[in-house]
Amino acid sequence: MDGRRAASAPPKKRVRKPRGRGLRTKTGCLTCRERHKKCDEQQPVCGPCSISSRQCVFPRLSQDAGRIASPAASHNERPTARLGDNGSHPHVDELPQSIGSTGSISLESQTSMQHVSQPPGTYDAAHAPYVSQPRVSAGVTFGDVYSYSPETVASELWTTDLASTRWLGLLATDAAQADSGFSLAPSPAPEDEEQRRAADLHGPPDATNLESRLNEVSDPERKTWQADRDITLSNREAALFRHFTERSARWLDFLDPQKLFSTYAVRLALRNAGLMNAILALSAKHLSKLGGGGHRNSNVSNGDTEEDSGGEWVRYYYETLRYVQEALTYTSYTASEELNATAIVISAYEMLDESDGRGNWQRHLKGVFWIQRSQDVNGASGGLRQAVWWAWLRQDIWAAFREKRRCLSFWAADKDFCELDPHGLADRAIYLLSRAVNYCAYSRLMESSSLTEVSASGNRARAGSEMLAEMERWKSFLGTEFKPLPTSTSPSDVFKPLWIHPPEFGVALQAYSFAKILVLLHKPRP
What we know:
Organism: Colletotrichum fioriniae PJ7
Shape: globular
Number of strands: 2
Strand order of the largest sheet: 1-2
Keywords: Nucleus
Main location: nucleus
GO molecular function: DNA-binding transcription factor activity, RNA polymerase II-specific; transcription cis-regulatory region binding; zinc ion binding
Protein name: Zn(2)-C6 fungal-type domain-containing protein
Largest sheet: 2 strands, antiparallel
Oligomer: single chain
C-alpha cells in the first residue's frame, strides 16, 4: 500500500535557488540602481552617470527605509464628520471652493492632531489596515520604492493603495531632492476600530474585487476628496484651464474619438482639486515652452491681471502632490478615475520638463503603470481609464525607444483586425509599434550577449517575419479613411507629400511605417 502510494505521488518539484541572492545592493545612486548598473558611489556625480551624462541622485532615506509594510508611526490631521442639525446623518468638512491666486487647492482638515506610535516588533500583519505601508513625506520614510519594478513585484503586492503610494513616493522623493524647500506632511492612516474591522473582514482592495469594494465605500468618504460644487478659478487659472482644454489635452486625446480628456476629465477636475492642479501645472508648463509665459496666446493674455511671475507650474505641481498625498488615505480615491487622470496629466507635465532626457520622468512612468495594473486597466477597459492607458502607452513607447528597453505593458490585444473600427485600427498601430520596440530591445540584448547561438538567431528572424506579416495584415484592413487626399506638390519635393485627414489616421500610418523600419533594422539577415 505504502509502495503504491509512493509510486503514485507526483515527483517533488525542484526549487531553483534565486540567482540574484547576495548580489543585489541598496547602495549607490538612484540612477544606477534604476538602470541596474554598478555605481562607484562617487559624489556628487558618480562615474557611470558622468560618462552617460545622466542626472545623478543619491537617496536620502532613513534607516528603516527598506521596510515594505510597517504601520505608520504618526498620523496627521484628517477631515472629520460633523453631525447635522438632526444629529442623524453626519457630513464631512467641505473642500475649499477656490484655488486662489497661489493655486493652493488642498483637502481641508479640521481635527486635532493624534500622535500614535507602536513599539518595534509589536506589529501584527493580520490586523493591518488598508493604508499600512509607509506614507510619503519629505521627513518621513518613503520605503525602498526603487527596489520595485513592474518586472519584479509579486502580483499580490499590486493593491490600489500600495501602487498609488509607491507612485507618489517616486514623485515626492525626486521633488524633495530637486527642491529642498518642498516637503509633504506625514499622511494619515486609518486607525479607528471601524476601519480596522473592515480591513479584517474584506482585506486589502485589489483588481479582482475592486468593483465590490467601491460599492461598499460610503458617499461621505468621497466627499472628503471630492467637492460638492465647482471649484472657483482666478482669471489666470481660468485661462490656463481653457488652454489645457483647447490645446494641451490634444496630446492625450489624439487617437481618442470621444476626446475624453477635453470633454470629460476637465469636468471631473471642476470637482477635484488634485486633477485641477495637475491640469494647471501642465498648461502653465506648456505655455512656458511656447515662450512668453502665455503672451502669445490670446486666451491667456486677455483679461488676465495675474501674469506669470515664473515657475507657476512648479507651484501647481507641488500642490498636486500635497493633495494626492492626503487623498490617498481613502480607498475610493485610490481606485478612482480622478487618480488615473491626475497620474497621466502629471506624466505629460514631467515629459515636457525633461526634454533633455536627464530627468526622472521615465521612471515615473513605472508608477503610472503600477496604478493601472492595480486597477486592472488596459487598452480595452472602456471610458476614461482606457483613454488614460493609451495615452500612457504612447508616452512609454517614446521612453522605451530612448532607453532601448522593453515597454512596460504586457497587455495582449484580443480582438482581431476585422472586429475593429477605423479608430480601433489606429490604436492597434500604436500597439504594433510597442511590440516593435520590444523586439528591438530583445534583439539588442541578444546581440550584446556572449551566448549567440544559431537557434536564437533563427528564432529572432522568425519572430521578425511574423511581426512584419502581422503589420501587412493590419494594413490590408484599412478603409478609405486612411487613403491620402489630393494635395499640392512642388518640383523641389524629394518625396511626394501625403495628406491624410483626419490627422490621427495619418499618425497611425506613421506608426506602422516606424514599426516596420525598426523590425527590418533589427531582424537578423540570412
